[in-house]
Amino acid sequence: CIALEQLGIITLYCSAIPTVHGKINIAHGIYPIPAPATAEILKGIPIAHFDVQSELTTPTGAAFAKGLVSSFGPFPSATIQHIGYGAGSKDFDFPNILRVIQFESEFEQQDSVQVIECQIDDMTPEALGYFMNNALEQGALDAYYTPIFMKKSRPSTQLTLICKLHDKT
User: Fold this and answer.
1) Angle at 140 between CA 139 and CA 141, to 5 degrees
2) Closest by alpha carbon to 31, among 43, 20, 22, 44?
3) How far apart are CA 29 and CA 13, in angstroms?
4) pLDDT grade, residue 110 (50/70/90)?
5) Degrees (nearest 5) of the Cα angle 136, 140, 143?
6) Model pLDDT, residue 40
7) 102 contacts 82 by C-beta, under 8 angstroms
8) For residues 155-169, b (16+ Cβ closer than 10 Å) or e, as one string?
9) Other beta carbons within 10 Å of 75
């Protein structure tokens, strides 16, 4: 999303998505809330029940949350930088607002790594050693071999490389 990039936002956190009970009239008739599209999008996302008989989460809102949010639940310890509010047009017995908080995490960003593995069934020990030395010289954080057995119980070697997340060279 361009706005997130321009603001330098890397990670989005979100509380559980509010859902309610009741019914909604959509093009295919009267359905329970959340609407079928919204419920489908919310699969795998934590939801929180509110005692309201009106739709609080639309398919569009659910799609934004599913596509952009990195973590659901309470956000980590942080220092608040900015707060923004948006008001909805429906009238409820409670404020119909969306609050967005931009914060800076108090914890240092940890490096992310990736593990690359392959199984080698026919290579000389000299070639394996050459490959490991070359991988470490090229920037792999670690490299190691594990003896394994392949089909028909043939001995083989599994190569494991650990490298920075975006470094596949």
Assistant:
1) 110
2) 22
3) 34
4) low
5) 70
6) 94
7) yes
8) eebebebebeeeeee
9) 15
Strands in 22-124 per DSSP E: 23-26, 29-32, 47-49, 71-72, 78-87, 97-105, 113-120
The overall pTM is greater than 0.70: no
Identity of residue 134: N
Q: Which amino acid is located at 121 in the chain? A: D
pLDDT at 6: 86
Instruction: Give me 87's structure tokens.
Output: 């008001």
Write down the residue that tokens 């989005």 correspond to: 12
Q: Where are the alpha helices (DSSP H) in 69-155?
A: 125-137
CB 69 within 8 A of CB 13: yes
pLDDT at 14 over 80: yes
26-80 tens-digit pLDDT: 888 999 888 899 999 999 999 998 888 888 888 999 999 999 998 888 877 888 9
The answer for residues whose C-beta is within 8 angstroms of residue 88's C-beta and 6 or more apart is: 96, 97, 98
Pairing state between β 155-164 and 113-120: antiparallel
- DSSP tag of 34: S
Residue 39 pLDDT = 92
pLDDT at 122: 87
Q: Give the separation between CA 160 and CA 85, rounded to whole angstroms.
A: 48
Per-domain boundaries in the chain:
2-105, 113-164
